[in-house]
Amino acid sequence: MSTEDDRPRQSGGYADSGYFTPSESKYPATPTSGDDIHGSGATTTALPRPTDSDYDSGHGGREEVLDPQPHAWHLGADLGLFVLRVTLGALFVGHGLQKVFGLLEGPGIDGFAKALAALGFQQATWLSWITGFTELGAGALLILGLFTPAAAAAVLGVMANAIWVRVDIDLFAGGVELEAIYAAAAFALLFAGAGRISLDRNTPWLRRAPAFGFIFLIIAAGLSVVTLVVLR
Asked: Which family, according to UniProt (predicted)?
């Protein structure tokens, strides 16, 4: 006479007797309707086997970490950022053309180098080339809305230096109203991003604009301090 423990071995193993292997113990193989898997005469209802989506949705197992979605379209904000970005970029392209090529009644490299030397800067010619091309490059990138954090940080760094050497506390707004407006516009673009009307629209630095803005703000501040301390 066989016991309950003997029957699985007599019938060829646990799988044949209705027992489950360890991997099947939580989610048994799906029986067909009407099968009697315990020999009790009762019928069972088919249970669906869990799918990968059940695990991914938080019911156990692994979870997928997805990148944040790109910024949603917001006509007012994106249009405002576009106008601000293109205006600031065009103005700085103009300043760069004045310094590098002497266009638009600008001083050219020699004239700008003399102005920097009068403000106490050393290596004035070399610094005038760097400043001129920085303004040209940053302005062009702002117009395109490309690598906006780097471009806005470059403009902000140039304006920080300009405000530092030109501010006069005896005048309204220190006599640097225009430089302050430029700096504020660059700061806004640095942390808000270029907006969806730009070449940056699908980039990580648009989706995470504040984080990238903070990184490039530190870079701009460091370069500004080096310029003022080492070259002046």
From this structure: Belongs to the DoxX family.
